[in-house]
Design a protein that fits this description.
Layout lengths: L7 H8 L28 H4 L40 H14 L20 H7 L2 H4 L11 H18 L3 E3 L5 H18 L6 E5 L5 H8 L3 E5 L9 H7 L4 E7 L11 H10 L3 E6 L18 E4 L19 E3 L11 E5 L2 E5 L16 H37 L16 E3 L2 H4 L5 H10 L6 E2 L9 E3 L7 H20 L1 H5 L14 H4 L9
Parallel strand pairs: 2-3, 2-4, 4-5, 5-6
Antiparallel strand pairs: 1-7, 6-7, 8-9, 10-12, 11-12
Helix pairs in contact: 4-11, 6-11, 7-8, 9-10, 11-14
Bound molecules: pyridoxal-5'-phosphate.
Pyridoxal-5'-phosphate binds next to helix 7.
Length: about 525
């Protein structure tokens, strides 16, 4: 009888037809980690065959009608040029293959710093798919959406409690949109006092979205240099703070993975001159259950549900960037606000001081359901473990890799992420990019590279609390192996990745030369 199940070798050959395992390691594991990323699939356009169809409809048993009867001919096209023609299995296989070649958090560690790629529990998905949530139309009257309104109202309460703030709007649908919303609130606050002010102080360690949001909100950015300690220093703020400055905008923990220790003093200085303190809370992982930004003098903060609160992200999917404020700023929050009415909930649009809407309807509701499920399943005790475990994992990596990679800020433990550089590998002509590419061969998504900009050749690693000690160690082993290869066989790194279907790609070509239309050649 023929063997029905393919042997492991033939399976390997099938899924890795283009991979060229380096040197003599053909069938053996190349080292720590798993196999390389696999990427290759012809475009649908390339697979197209004229006349091939995915459907086979029965002959009409009624008289055919011209489609122009329903759709005016001005809106009808005779042909879509180059439209791919394929069978159903071709289409299904195309998308299934590509879905399997996609690297995601469900496949392995994803240590992308400043992104908090934590595992997204399946329970969240289950809850978000409940028909009552998933099929609710955003235009149904309040009376028929009581459950959804209650969920949003309670989530606002949880986020207030977690951040130590006093009012929350769930409307912004990304971290950056939350920042813009927060800055508009700050502008409105100052306007009401008679002068919107001109400037916002932003440390140079800030996330790139911070200065962009300031500019969009009509503020001039005063970029401040972080000191030797890697944080914004109170004395720097004291020198620059005056009545032209609307706010200080900082990220805590900052993009170096360090806690902004002088924040209390900074808040005091800013408040004394009538300014406000904005905290970018996109990465709240290190703080969860440990401390509250509201107690640090922060007036406005945005959170990224798609980072800290385990809703899926990446690939430009829906996000959610709620904004939390202190009581005095509550009247400026976007409309509508969810309010208690009798025993139920209602939407309040009658808020003359509001900055208005920032999003259609209520924001990305599905993300709110997931975050709500996450918070409810972990509870207070569970949430309180997130911060310490995230910090422990990051510091484990920091200490394990310290003998191999240069650590620019090494005077104190890090928070949820640690930042190395390629300085030690420079002697062998190896750069951060080479290290990141070689990680693909070991089956890991690389960390964030060349960010923050204040660190030359940065490798920004954030393991998150959801990685087990084994998987964190596996990543460490891969990084150590790469550090050794840099010394003994730098060319191997220069040519990496070896085990992916495509090798070194032009990092910017796709963005610089947009090709939005298929042209057969
Ligand atoms: C991710 C991130 C942002 C931006 O969030 P988006 O949802 O991508 O807009 C802003 N600030 C920091 C610190 C971040 O890590």
């Amino acid at each position: 009888m023929p063997e029905l199940t393919p042997s492991l070798t033939s399976f390997k050959e099938r899924v890795h037809p283009m991979s060229k395992p380096e040197e003599k390691t053909k069938e053996k594991k190349v080292g720590p980690g798993r196999s390389g990323l696999q990427l290759e699939e012809p475009l649908l356009f390339e697979q197209s065959q004229k006349g091939r169809r995915a459907d086979s409809l029965p002959k009409l048993d009624v008289e055919a009608q011209p489609i122009e009867r329903w759709i005016p001919s001005a809106y009808l096209r005779q042909e879509i040029e180059g439209f791919p023609e394929l069978s159903e299995p071709q289409v299904i296989r195309h998308f299934t293959r590509m879905s399997q070649w996609n690297y995601g958090i469900d496949l392995g560690a994803y240590p992308l710093g400043s992104c908090t790629m934590k595992y997204n529990p399946r329970l969240n998905e289950e809850i978000a798919r409940l028909a009552g949530f998933a099929h609710l139309h955003p235009l149904v009257p309040e009376t028929l959406a009581q459950g959804a309104l209650q969920l949003m109202w309670e989530l606002e309460g949880f986020l207030s409690e977690i951040t130590g703030m006093e009012a929350v709007s769930l409307q912004p649908s990304a971290g950056a949109q939350g920042e813009l919303t927060g800055l508009k609130i700050i502008r409105r606050y100052h306007e009401q006092k008679g002068n919107p002010r001109k400037k916002v102080i932003v440390p140079d360690s800030a996330h790139g979205t911070n200065p962009a949001s300031c500019a969009l909100a009509g503020y001039e950015v005063m970029e401040e240099f972080i000191g030797k300690k890697g944080i914004l220093e109170a004395k720097t703020v004291a020198e620059r703070m005056n009545e032209e400055v609307a706010a200080v905008m900082l990220t805590n923990p900052n993009t170096l993975g360090l806690f902004e220790k002088e924040i209390l003093e900074i808040s005091e200085i800013v408040h004394r001159k009538g300014g406000l303190v904005y905290c970018d809370g996109a990465n709240l992982n290190a703080m969860l259950g440990v401390c509250k930004p509201g107690k640090m003098g922060v007036d406005v903060i945005q959170l990224n549900l798609h980072k800290t609160f385990s809703t899926p992200h990446g690939g430009g999917g829906p996000g959610s960037g709620p904004v939390a404020v202190k009581k005095g700023l509550e009247p400026f929050l976007p409309i509508p606000r969810i309010v208690k009415k009798g025993t139920g909930f209602a939407l309040n649009f009658d808020r003359p001081q509001s900055i208005g809407r920032v999003r259609s309807f209520f924001g990305n509701f599905g993300m709110m359901v997931r975050a709500y499920a996450y918070i409810r399943t972990l509870g207070c005790e569970g949430l309180a473990q997130v911060g310490p475990l995230a910090v422990l994992n990051a510091n484990y990596i920091r200490e394990r890799l310290r003998p191999y990679y240069h650590l620019p800020y090494d005077h104190e433990p890090c928070m949820h992420e640690c930042v190395f550089t390629d300085k030690n590998q420079e002697t062998y002509g190896i750069t951060t990019l080479d290290i990141a590419k070689r990680l693909l061969d070991y089956g890991f998504h690389p960390p964030t590279i060349y960010f923050p900009l204040v660190v030359s050749g940065a490798l920004m690693i954030e393991p998150t609390e959801t990685e087990s000690p084994e998987s964190v160690e596996e990543f460490v082993q891969a990084m150590i192996a790469i550090a050794k290869e840099a010394e003994t066989n730098p060319q191997l790194l220069k040519d990496a990745p070896h085990r992916t279907k495509v090798r070194r790609l032009d990092e910017v070509k796709a963005a610089r030369e947009l090709k939005l239309r298929w042209q057969s050649t």
